[in-house]
Design a protein that fits this description.
204 residues; heme binding; single chain; 9 strands; 9-stranded antiparallel beta sheet; 29% strand; alpha+beta
């Protein structure tokens, strides 16, 4: 094979790698990792409307959303991906985002929290967890309203942006699930600048 042909082949392989197996151009905040595929339906001043395709997740329930609870939950999920499963297999961790999901009881009382990692499309069969609290979930195709913010994710800045998103949706006349909300993070704790966080609220 001649040198120009080698160069062309490498260029093609690079494009395929960056686009992913399904040809989807993931946004820059996915950092060339696998992300759930979506289409931006509309962009507004304070949020955007996304249509997500069906996606799969590994999820564990959490006692709450304190730093301790979140760390404990994500540690369980991480250990599962690092051979701590019935098959002793490694699960692809080159995926974003990680989710912290909260559902409120309608009277505003008790909250239910869970933590999730996105499952890459090529992982069609996942090993059975050793920890029975970990489960596989499928998120059906849906519309999600998203607000983006930067910095290290905290309870304070999440609640602040959650309120702004709810207010913007109400002002725009959008119908949404007022009892369920999600924090989505796209970086690990070692990333100090340029962090990308999102608030997700499902449309109804």
């Amino acid at each position: 094979m001649k040198f120009p042909e080698v160069t062309t082949l490498l260029s093609v392989l690079a494009v395929v790698f960056l686009r992913g197996a399904h040809g989807w151009d993931a946004p820059p905040f996915c950092h060339s990792y696998d992300c759930p595929e979506f289409t931006v339906v509309n962009k507004y001043e304070d949020f955007e409307e996304r249509a997500y395709q069906v996606s799969r997740w590994i999820t564990v329930d959490s006692q709450g959303v304190s730093d301790h609870d979140v760390k404990a939950g994500f540690t369980k999920l991480w250990d599962y991906t690092q051979w701590d499963n019935k098959a002793g297999e490694h699960v692809n961790t080159h995926t974003w985002p990680a989710l912290i999901s909260t559902t409120e009881v309608e009277d505003g009382g008790e909250k239910h929290a869970s933590l999730s990692f996105y499952v890459a499309p090529e992982d069609t069969v996942l090993p059975t967890p050793n920890d029975a609290s970990i489960r596989n979930e499928t998120m059906p195709a849906c519309t999600i309203y998203v607000r983006t913010f930067s910095g290290f994710l905290s309870e304070y800045n999440f609640q602040e942006n959650l309120k702004k998103l709810r207010d913007a949706l109400t002002q725009a006349g959008k119908a949404f699930d007022s009892h369920r909300f999600i924090a989505a993070g796209y970086e690990g704790p070692w990333t100090l600048i340029g962090r990308h966080n999102e608030v997700w609220i499902h449309a109804t």
